[in-house]
Specification:
CATH class of the largest domain: Alpha Beta
Number of strands: 12
Largest sheet: 7 strands, mixed
Radius of gyration: 34 Å
Number of helices: 19
CATH topology of the largest domain: Aminopeptidase
CATH superfamily of the largest domain: Zn-dependent exopeptidases
Shape: elongated
Helix content: 40-55%
Structural class: alpha/beta
Strand content: 5-15%
Strand order of the largest sheet: 6-8-7-9-12-10-11
């Protein structure tokens, strides 16, 4: 589907949001719909007065036609966007299913029948009466009705079971009643159906006058008393269940409000701080749970719940960023990241360079570090942040059937569509259970381990001249300014056929580079952002020398967390 059309559908879906408590401009649309429902209902009511019709008939007709046309358009758009409301409404038959839902049927019955009188001789007044059903649409926006429906839904199974039990017991008693009363009132209780009708008539009313002849035997009267008690239970049991469900739903709502407040506190905790080496405002890569407890006055349980109910937070173990030789005690922390795509995040800055993080989901820190690497260079950014941790399937390997991988690859292809584009992948150099290596920065580009040449058939670099100059520049600056050693394909093999970078390079003139960075440089070194800035500057110098080198102004502003998460 066309992107613009899809964006329009998504905006419509937000417009049709029924929650009036959300602070958004779409609420005005909701209030407008409620107002027109009231006006439409009032018009139907006023049209029942002949005097008012004779005097203001033209105005009533105008209101009638205007509201009908408005709701026709609105209902049609709701049906069109139904799949965004719930995936079960996707496709033609999904739309049909939506039309037979509670609100779908109300929408259709109160709108579309209006047009029947143009084709079929149906009294217009009868069609007009259906508009009263439009009042039921207000339930969409009422919190009380929402709570009631959720309460009934929550206890639906218990209510069905209790009513089934009461019905079966009543049925058994009615048959006993027949055998007892048939002896003393054979003309009245001449078959089992009469006793069944009499028993259920005590609950739902007397449809045929059978209840006018009560049991007269002693046992029959006892059964009648039992049925009377069951009649009370038929209403008392569901009422009790709904009452308890009300309490549970209200408690759940209050708990959700608490979680939302705690999520806001978490965002506030990730306030940008000035990096003393770059003098830029940088968000912390993570915060320990103990630090958040101290700063935000949250309990550990509050923090964990907020993380579990958030798309843009996760719990990490800092110990996993230290080689096994220096492994500290486990230390839990909270990491914050951006989510704007089903797989994670994608930011298009119009650059020829795209910074990629395919493993952010399982590797702490790397996602946040990659984000600032891209931001410092003014590069495009794409990162995987969403998915199943166990069993983990890598985006680095294109041979696996991984949810989100296809969309992820499609977005990278869009970002790298320019001629001579570079896709630079940032990875952690080694895991926590591996020893430290003599060098801290490892450059790989599709060749075998130990082969630093750019001529191998598996190499995913097309512009070899630029790559050679860039690598030499990066090696020299890293060692001279930071004492950090870099190597070319010395310790890592990237010649495998399933490398996602290879798929991209085969499709055009894309250059692929993988930079593996030691945890010591990426996390533990206080100069980490300065190191990232230097590496980003080198890439920009060689790939986009004529582009604007001005830093993103946001890097100099002290704000809260990432874009889109500023707390007003």
């Amino acid at each position: 589907m066309n992107t613009k059309i899809e964006l329009f559908r998504q905006e419509l879906n937000r417009v049709f949001d029924d929650n009036l408590r959300t602070k958004q401009w779409q609420n005005y649309v909701d209030y407008a719909i409620i107002g027109l429902i009231v006006i439409s209902t009032l018009e139907v009511f006023l049209s029942t007065y002949d005097g008012i019709v004779q005097r203001y008939g033209k105005w009533l007709t105008f209101v009638d036609y205007f509201t009908t046309i408005f709701f026709t358009i609105e209902v049609s758009l709701r049906i069109w966007c139904a799949d965004l409301l719930d995936s079960k409404y996707k496709g033609f038959w999904g739309r049909i299913k939506y039309c037979f839902s509670f609100y779908g049927m109300i929408d259709i019955l109160s709108t579309y029948p209006f047009y029947l009188h143009f084709f079929v001789k149906i009294p217009y007044a009868a069609l007009k009466a259906l508009r009263i059903a439009r009042l039921l649409r207000i339930f969409r926006y009422m919190k009380a009705f929402s709570i009631l429906s959720r309460a009934i839904k929550a206890k639906k199974q218990e209510m069905v079971v209790s009513l089934q039990f009461l019905a079966i017991v009543t049925l058994i008693l009615s048959f006993i009643l027949f055998f007892v009363e048939h002896e003393v009132q054979p003309d009245v209780y001449n078959n089992g159906w009469k006793s069944v009708v009499w028993a259920f008539a005590q609950y739902i009313g007397d449809p045929g006058g059978f209840a006018e002849t009560p049991p007269i035997s002693f046992i029959g009267r006892l059964i009648a008393c039992a049925i009377g008690i069951l009649g009370i239970a038929i209403f008392a049991v569901p009422a009790g269940l709904i009452g308890s469900a009300f309490t549970e739903v209200m408690s759940a709502d209050n708990h959700e409000i608490e979680i939302e407040e705690n999520k806001k506190k978490l965002h506030l905790a990730f306030e940008r701080k000035m990096c003393r080496f770059t003098r830029l405002q940088i968000m912390p890569l993570n915060l320990s749970i103990q630090e958040i407890i101290a700063r935000m006055r949250m309990t550990e349980n509050d923090i964990i719940e907020a993380v579990e109910h958030s798309q843009d937070f996760r719990i990490i173990n800092i110990a996993s960023t230290v080689p096994v030789d220096d492994r500290p005690m486990d230390k839990l922390a909270i990491e914050h990241f951006i989510v704007n795509r089903p797989y994670g995040c994608m930011i298009d800055r119009g650059s020829k360079v795209t910074i990629v993080s395919p493993s952010s989901l399982v590797d702490p820190v790397i996602g946040a570090y990659t984000y600032y690497f891209a931001k410092l260079g003014g590069f495009n950014y794409i990162s995987r942040e969403v998915g199943e941790l166990r069993p983990y399937k890598s985006f680095y390997n294109c041979s696996q059937d991984v949810p989100g991988l296809e969309e992820y690859m499609s977005d990278i292809e869009k970002l790298s569509a320019k001629d001579g584009s570079w896709v630079v992948t940032l990875l952690a150099a080694s895991g926590a259970n591996e020893p430290e290596l003599p060098s801290q920065i490892h450059l790989t580009y599709g060749g075998k381990k130990g082969d630093a040449s750019l001529e191998a058939p598996t190499v995913v670099i097309r512009d070899k001249e630029t790559a050679t100059a860039m690598f030499e520049d990066m090696e020299n600056i890293l060692e001279s300014e930071y004492g950090i050693k870099a190597d070319r394909q010395k310790y890592h093999d990237s010649a495998g056929p399933n490398l996602f970078m290879r798929k991209l390079s085969n499709a055009g003139s894309v250059n692929g580079l993988i930079i593996r960075i030691a945890w010591s440089c990426m996390y533990w070194d206080s100069r980490r952002i300065k190191i990232a800035q230097s590496m980003a500057d080198i890439i920009k110098k060689h790939v986009e020398p004529k582009e604007n080198n001005a830093l993103d102004p946001e890097l100099k502003i002290k704000g809260i967390a990432y874009e889109g998460h500023t707390i007003e």
